[in-house]
Amino acid sequence: MQENIAVRLENVSRVFGTTAAVNGISLDIAKGEIVSLVGHSGCGKSTLLRIISGVETVDSGRVVLDGREVDGNTFVEPEVRGVGFVFQDYALFPHLSVRDNILFGLKSRARTEAVAMAEDVIRRVGIDHLAERFPHTLSGGEQQRVALARALAPQPAVILMDEPFSNLDQGLRDKVRTDTLSLLRSLDATVIMVTHDPQEALSVGDRVVLMRSGEIVQAGTAYDLHDRPVNSYAAEFFGSFNKVPGSWRDGRLETALGSFSGAQGSGPESGTILYLRPQGIVVSVDRGDFSARIEQRIFQGDSEQVLLRVDGLDLPLKVITRERLPSGTEAVKISILPERTMVF
Length: 344
Prior knowledge:
Elements: E1 5-16, E2 19-30, E3 34-38, H1 45-53, E4 60-65, E5 68-71, E6 83-86, H2 98-104, H3 111-125, H4 140-152, E7 158-162, H5 170-186, E8 191-195, H6 198-204, E9 207-212, E10 215-220, H7 222-227, H8 232-237, E11 242-249, E12 252-255, E13 258-260, E14 273-276, E15 281-284, E16 290-299, E17 304-309, E18 317-321, E19 331-336, E20 341-343
Parallel strand pairs: 3-8, 3-9, 6-7, 7-8
Antiparallel strand pairs: 1-2, 1-4, 4-5, 9-10, 11-12, 11-14, 12-13, 14-20, 15-19, 16-17, 16-19, 17-18
Helix pairs in contact: 2-4, 3-4, 4-5
């Protein structure tokens, strides 16, 4: 298994003053895997990326890249770690052409070899038509592709990407992200990408690592983190919930919306709050288990957001439904999908 590990972090910590930016993190990343590091600002995700690149050093623990220790008992300089870095602002040299920007990262190679490697990556990334242009003449998406080509040119073992799509407009961002990930997967690249966007993390990574206060909250597939969060923080990071108080009785959580058992994380030790996704409530004009009154409706195209008042609840329920309720409807029936609930 060791030979399949591209990045290994062993109990890595980094402290700034009295603040532990990274606190005892251990993580293995397989070759060819794309991993999203996600969390709010200050969670330590960018510091962890800088540690892997060699820009920051560990205070304790070890960093191993492709079987070679690069930080811990020894230190390997960033430029010889075999790591490519795509910065948030792309960091292209404005006075160099696209081709020369890519060649800049190949200065340690013989000229003929560097030119061949640059031409190869220009072709693979599909920027042949941009090779003689300068960064200020490129769109945001084109600059992003050039930055990626420059990172790929030295054939690094790992590509690190720090918020690589955040400077793009939403429409362009989705397309560039899709194209970039398709290219990286076709190259079987090992990628670690930092993002603060929960939906981006879920859509990009083979594995998602949620961080908080310098520690890993949960790591797993996108489905793991979205559908099976380990705690309320993880649950709320990746989605909004209705929170319904309850009390345990004979192994079931009793609430104003009924009795629940077998819910994700259920059991008296879990807590007494039922977490219910807005999509986990079925709304109908005449079919359901509970009566509700419509307080607000917001049409969203394919779906509608509805705020409902239910007897016994202090706060309205937020529901996302595709049911087309007749105009002027004031009262509805609702049912709860138990599989869309969890308890914390």
